[in-house]
Specification:
The complex is a heterodimer of chains A (107) and B (78).
Chain A: H1 3-14, E1 17-21, E2 23-24, E3 27-28, H2 31-43, E4 48-51, H3 56-66, E5 73-76, E6 79-82, H4 84-93, H5 95-102
Parallel strand pairs in A: 1-4
Antiparallel strand pairs in A: 1-5, 2-3, 5-6
Helix pairs in contact in A: 1-3, 2-4
Chain B: H1 5-15, E1 20-25, E2 32-38, H2 47-57, E3 68-74
Parallel strand pairs in B: 2-3
Antiparallel strand pairs in B: 1-2
Helix pairs in contact in B: 1-2
Classes of the chains: A alpha+beta (107), B alpha+beta (78).
Chain lengths: 107, 78
Amino acid sequence: MTDIKTQIDTTVKTNDVVLFMKGNADMPQCGFSGRSVQILTQLGVPFKDVNVLASDEIRQGIKDYTNWPTVPQLYVKGEFVGGADIMMEMYQSGELKQLMADKGVGV
Amino acid sequence: MAMTAPDIERFIREGIPGAVVQIQDLAGDGNHYSANVVAAAFKGKNRVQQHQMVYAALQGRMGGELHALALQTSVPEE
């Protein structure tokens, strides 16, 4: 595994909830990233934010890691859940809250 | 560079035979669209996999030429 892939792998496996995003939780720099932060905040789920704008390596690495071309990306217990639209869809249907509960995270 | 709605629709229909595609232009800037895609090919796949099929159909344009595509995917009712 290349080092950036290992770094990402370690991050998602050692933190319950990780949001790879543009900007950080206090200062999102993209509408979709901002909305994803709001969703997690409303669910009351603590999460680790990773600002992909901080390094091109992470910005590209995260897209290769899951073969998913955009950011934000949400991971729960090491598993890729989805991007902004999947998060929104799951949040509105209550699935996201259920997923967090099933995984024993935060809620 | 940006994409037009017909371009997006064509790529998705070519990449996912039989898909029914509805595109909405969210911002008029050629960069922010929403797409509703219904395809039998999605059967048995979870949301992430369904979306990945659409991104594959767009042949790498997602996240580059096309900044935002809010996706809704589903399987046709039997």
